[in-house]
Amino acid sequence: MRNRLLILSVFIVASCGLAYELITGALASYLLGDTVLQFSSIIGCYLFAMGAGSHLSKYVKEERLLDAFVEIELLVGLIGGVSASLLFVVFALAGEPFRLVLYALVFSIGVLVGMEIPLVMRVLNQRQTDFADLVSRVLTFDYLGALAVSLLFPLLLAPKLGLARSALLFGLLNAGVALWACHSFKRELARPGLQLARSGVVLLILGAMFATSDRLTDWSEKAVYGDEIIHAETTPYQRLVITKWKNDMRLYINGNLQFSSRDEYRYHEALVHPVLARLPWARNVLVLGGGDGLAVREILKYPGIVHVTLVDLDPAMTRLFSRSEPLLALNQGSLADKRVTVVNDDAARWLEHHEGSYDAVIVDFPDPSNFALGKLYSTPIYRLLARHLAENGLAVVQSTSPYNAPRSYWSVDATLREAGFHTTPYHVYVPSFGEWGFIIAAKRPGYAPPERFPVPLRFLDKETTRQMFFFPPDMRRWDVKPNELNNQQLVHYFEQDWSQVLR
């Protein structure tokens, strides 16, 4: 019976091991960006460390196998359990050592996890378990545990518990396995009383941290953002944080500023009105991204608009901006307007599988900081976009900064032209971001900026619009490559540009 329970513990051990890997990878992606790079480097470091741990396990003496198993479970539970909370604190207090601490934690956890399975197999082998049966059962439960957590983490744990509490939960599970081993094999342990006391202490530490982890995370994020956090939420897709200072509300996605309520009107007026003011006949508008409803707010100022379709990946985003009173005041309840249909889907998939032509398309995706976002700025996606744009219609694409990220900006322009569009680049100064860029795309040449606007605006007029379409010498056009799916050149440009700006 105890042997079966020991094999069952492999299921928990494997679940915990993969969970720490997923949690550190997700946290690094949230805080550092570039999802592919973070997950790839963390997985590589973790697997290498597991190999080192498997090698080190052979130096554990036969008479200490169970004691070593208990001690390793307590260590991996303690280090893995506090890993996410510790990383949040390190990032908040001293950003520079973050990567060093991150990979030190990943390596330490990997070494310990790598020792677990060999030790369990040796313990079972001491009990004269058939070797073939031993290997098959241990590996079966190992892989089943990995499958279970790989499904639970994105669907349940990260959205409901958050990263810090998820790590602590798995730390408690590791410590629970250690406590069970102390109780079940107390006659075979060298110092069972000491091991029980250690298990109790680790469980107490992790339990206390689990109960207070929300406050620790809030404190860490407040130190990062500087202002009061009025909403923080981890979704299956991203980390949403909204801060407030006096009359300034700010939205951050994965640590990146999306808007400030003090000047977002400049951005959204510049995004929407140079297109719609040239399309007085427009009736149907498609918005890709823009789940905050602020672009939709500007679109609905035109009385001729009959229908707006908004496609945004994250239902938590559109739900938040449909229910929160301060945010409803900001977007003027645009997402609840009877003319608006909100669709929560991947924009690329939606464009591929849905029909319909739109007079105007507003593309307001986050910056192409990783490959998942970079695909939305690629030639194939823009060709799909062309299928949904009326022959005389106009599209506009948020295109990062032509001043701080010129390679990125002009790559978006090159990609649209590669997809067959005629492009008209322009830019606007938004105090929260600096110079920011947009590109108008049309199937036919001849776009001219509007000289007047038929709706009341706070920022745009004839003169500011004229200036938006003028590029001084320090924002000249760059000769760069379009963004294709097979190379994601835009993401590399983006990293190269912003690495020279951000400190």
Automatic annotation (TrEMBL):
<dbReference type="Pfam" id="PF01564">
    <property type="entry name" value="Spermine_synth"/>
</dbReference>
<feature type="binding site">
    <location>
        <position position="292"/>
    </location>
    <ligand>
        <name>spermidine</name>
    </ligand>
</feature>
<keyword id="KW-0472">Membrane</keyword>
<dbReference type="InterPro" id="IPR030374">
    <property type="entry name" value="PABS"/>
</dbReference>
<feature type="active site" description="Proton acceptor">
    <location>
        <position position="364"/>
    </location>
</feature>
<feature type="transmembrane region" description="Helical">
    <location>
        <begin position="100"/>
        <end position="122"/>
    </location>
</feature>
<keyword id="KW-1133">Transmembrane helix</keyword>
<feature type="transmembrane region" description="Helical">
    <location>
        <begin position="35"/>
        <end position="53"/>
    </location>
</feature>
<dbReference type="InterPro" id="IPR030373">
    <property type="entry name" value="PABS_CS"/>
</dbReference>
<feature type="transmembrane region" description="Helical">
    <location>
        <begin position="163"/>
        <end position="182"/>
    </location>
</feature>
<feature type="transmembrane region" description="Helical">
    <location>
        <begin position="194"/>
        <end position="212"/>
    </location>
</feature>
<dbReference type="GO" id="GO:0010487">
    <property type="term" value="F:thermospermine synthase activity"/>
</dbReference>
<feature type="binding site">
    <location>
        <position position="238"/>
    </location>
    <ligand>
        <name>S-methyl-5'-thioadenosine</name>
    </ligand>
</feature>
<keyword id="KW-0620">Polyamine biosynthesis</keyword>
<dbReference type="GO" id="GO:0004766">
    <property type="term" value="F:spermidine synthase activity"/>
</dbReference>
<keyword id="KW-1003">Cell membrane</keyword>
<keyword id="KW-0745">Spermidine biosynthesis</keyword>
<comment type="function">
    <text>Catalyzes the irreversible transfer of a propylamine group from the amino donor S-adenosylmethioninamine (decarboxy-AdoMet) to putrescine (1,4-diaminobutane) to yield spermidine.</text>
</comment>
<feature type="transmembrane region" description="Helical">
    <location>
        <begin position="134"/>
        <end position="157"/>
    </location>
</feature>
<dbReference type="GO" id="GO:0005886">
    <property type="term" value="C:plasma membrane"/>
</dbReference>
<feature type="binding site">
    <location>
        <begin position="346"/>
        <end position="347"/>
    </location>
    <ligand>
        <name>S-methyl-5'-thioadenosine</name>
    </ligand>
</feature>
<keyword id="KW-0808">Transferase</keyword>
<protein>
    <recommendedName>
        <fullName>Polyamine aminopropyltransferase</fullName>
        <ecNumber>2.5.1.16</ecNumber>
    </recommendedName>
</protein>
<dbReference type="GO" id="GO:0008295">
    <property type="term" value="P:spermidine biosynthetic process"/>
</dbReference>
<dbReference type="InterPro" id="IPR029063">
    <property type="entry name" value="SAM-dependent_MTases_sf"/>
</dbReference>
<dbReference type="InterPro" id="IPR001045">
    <property type="entry name" value="Spermi_synthase"/>
</dbReference>
<feature type="transmembrane region" description="Helical">
    <location>
        <begin position="74"/>
        <end position="94"/>
    </location>
</feature>
<feature type="binding site">
    <location>
        <position position="312"/>
    </location>
    <ligand>
        <name>S-methyl-5'-thioadenosine</name>
    </ligand>
</feature>
<comment type="similarity">
    <text>Belongs to the spermidine/spermine synthase family.</text>
</comment>
<comment type="subunit">
    <text>Homodimer or homotetramer.</text>
</comment>
<keyword id="KW-0812">Transmembrane</keyword>
<comment type="pathway">
    <text>Amine and polyamine biosynthesis; spermidine biosynthesis; spermidine from putrescine: step 1/1.</text>
</comment>
<feature type="domain" description="PABS">
    <location>
        <begin position="208"/>
        <end position="443"/>
    </location>
</feature>
<feature type="binding site">
    <location>
        <position position="268"/>
    </location>
    <ligand>
        <name>spermidine</name>
    </ligand>
</feature>
